[in-house]
Amino acid sequence: MTPLQSLLLLSCAGSTLAQLTPSATYSPPSASAGLTSSTSTPNAQWSNILGNSLYFYDAQRSGKLDQGAYGNRVEWRNDSALEDGSDWNLDLTGGWYDAGDYIKATFPLTFTLFAISWGALTHGHGYDLAQQTAYLDGTLRWGYDWLIKAHPSDNTLFVQVGSGDVDNAYWGGDQDIPTPRPGYPVNSSFPGTDAWSSAAAAFAIGSVLYTPSVSYNPTSSSAPPESIGNSTYAATLLSHARTLYAAANNTTPRQTYYESLGESVAAYASSNWNDDLTLAALTLALATNESSYYADAYNYYVQYKISGLQEVWNWDSAIPAIYVMFAEIATARPELATGAGLSTNLTGWQAETENYFDKILDGNFKRGYLTKGGLLYFDGDSDEASLNPAMAIAMLMFKYAPLASSSSKTESYTNFAQSQLNYLLGNNPMNVPYIVGQHPNSPQNPHSAPASGGTDIKAIRTSPPTEAYVLYGAVVGGPLSDDRFWDWRDDWAQTEVALDYNAMLPTLASMQLLNNTADPHYVSVQAGTYSIPSGQPCDAALPCEGGGGLSGGAKAGIAIGVILGVLLIVAAICYWKRKSLARTWRKGYRRPTV
Ligand SMILES: *[C@@H]1O[C@H](CO)[C@@H](O)[C@H](O)[C@H]1NC(C)=O
Ligand SMILES: *[C@@H]1O[C@H](CO)[C@@H](O)[C@H](O)[C@H]1NC(C)=O
Ligand SMILES: *[C@@H]1O[C@H](CO)[C@@H](O)[C@H](O)[C@H]1NC(C)=O
Ligand SMILES: *[C@@H]1O[C@H](CO)[C@@H](O)[C@H](O)[C@H]1NC(C)=O
Ligand SMILES: *[C@@H]1O[C@H](CO)[C@@H](O)[C@H](O)[C@H]1NC(C)=O
Ligand SMILES: *[C@@H]1O[C@H](CO)[C@@H](O)[C@H](O)[C@H]1NC(C)=O
Ligand SMILES: *[C@@H]1O[C@H](CO)[C@@H](O)[C@H](O)[C@H]1NC(C)=O
Predict the structure, then answer these.
(1) Rounded Cα distance, 4 and 464, in Å
(2) 343: domain CATH number?
(3) Which atom from ligand 5 is nearest to the alpha carbon of 293?
(4) What's this model's pTM, rounded to 2 decimal places?
């Protein structure tokens, strides 16, 4: 684009709307389009993946839908939850429903905004190629605009709207969502260091993305989408980032929002806040160019012993994102470290990041391994959403690969990341591309109350027999560790959808648009080659009965003796496994009744 064209584009945008309007409207093609090889450049299949991955966020919208530059694209969704915030005399309408249900959960939402914005900052030109920049803008603003409402004063941040208990008992459409839908804030008396920090990081990276002609070049090809810059919006996002970080950094005691608010917010009880605070400080450094934030980030990295950890990247853990961002900043903004009196130390950040990635590649990662079919699986973290941690690592590896210390490492990381993405897209033992509506073999039964059309919580799998609406672009939880996948609507561990499950896909698709002219794997997958496995899944959603061959009398005898012991063990495990139980609670409440 010539400078004159850019100027024209900018001035046109300025004279019309507060946000970008799509030059070509996009709506998802039917699944059968996934069988046709693309003959165009950029590859139309990758453009569709990108378009669909953003469309999913439109389907999750809450509040009045006919807002923003392009209004509501999802004809089967209705305005809903229009009283949110009324219990606090605030307007907390808008935002997104978290998963297959109707609570609004801030913590995974901020993780999602962070992941999409950070990816777009370095790989944004893929959105331009696919003509998806306006939809990216619309998606991000839908999230950030709500987050702004959820942060009505310096220390107050609403971390959830809607009660888990009330929501758990409901399975139905968006017109009968049960009330009341209380708002849950953290504030100076009830601190949430993790929630404040994660929101600060999301706002900060958003403000960098929206800074017009921002210069952030970890690699020579890094670029945000061409026309997304808006200095007013960037400044608004940054001011929220600063006050949230100040709340997180200055309020004592530092503790998680779950520690402050308890069981009502147990759906996303994070393990700790150290990683969130560190990532927030680092992202604020990037957004402000102020070395004091960099000094905080580095000090917390040292103080909280963040080096050398083997943790996934998901809503609960920022660890590997911290490594990669330090490496990016050592390359793109070396003055932040030197300004804080520290060494830039690119070599050190490369060593940190590569130590992490190489453990995965070499099969030495704590609880991490490849399934037989080739999916990166972490026992525990992958059990109820197997694709999410694998896609997060893929995004980080693609992002970091060009910064690696040797060209052979660049190649290994790129190849490994590609293998994970290919698995998602159908190169797996089930022949299933795990994106709804992308291909005839895609999941047909995502665990989503609004999309299902069902109203009978006792018959989620079978009523109605066919999902009412196609939830295009939704990444489902994913297969089990033996690569088997049951496309059952009640098996939330495998078929639920969520904001965070989709968070890596837009960036991964944008990366492919930049570099890959080949079709995504699913184009070569024959329709009709998936079938439900035999037997029972035996996962968190549908646990198998123990069931031995003992007689009734023997069972009764053993039972009495065992019960007391079990009770004790259960109590101990409950305490020890608080975190993962909370996760199970989050998505596992709709116990199947089949
Ligand atoms: C920039 O964003 C602000 C805040 O959303 C909006 O009011 C304004 O119209 C936008 N400017 C342009 C040029 O799009
Ligand atoms: C939206 O409203 C229409 C008309 O009442 C209804 O048919 C549809 O199922 C609703 N959508 C959802 C997700 O409940
Ligand atoms: C602070 O947060 C707590 C817990 O959510 C809430 O009960 C209390 O009303 C809040 N205080 C103010 C002043 O908003
Ligand atoms: C920070 O510095 C970069 C160049 O290194 C510049 O592009 C950016 O606008 C600056 N950000 C702020 C908030 O001053
Ligand atoms: C964050 O808090 C620490 C004290 O815990 C302080 O030393 C530091 O200056 C604060 N950071 C900023 C940016 O104000
Ligand atoms: C650079 O990083 C390495 C590896 O983390 C570390 O051992 C070394 O002390 C760092 N050097 C400086 C000057 O900070
Ligand atoms: C795409 O290719 C460019 C150079 O051709 C490289 O710098 C970049 O890292 C590649 N991106 C991905 C995601 O592989």
Answers:
(1) 55
(2) 1.50.10.10
(3) 13
(4) 0.92
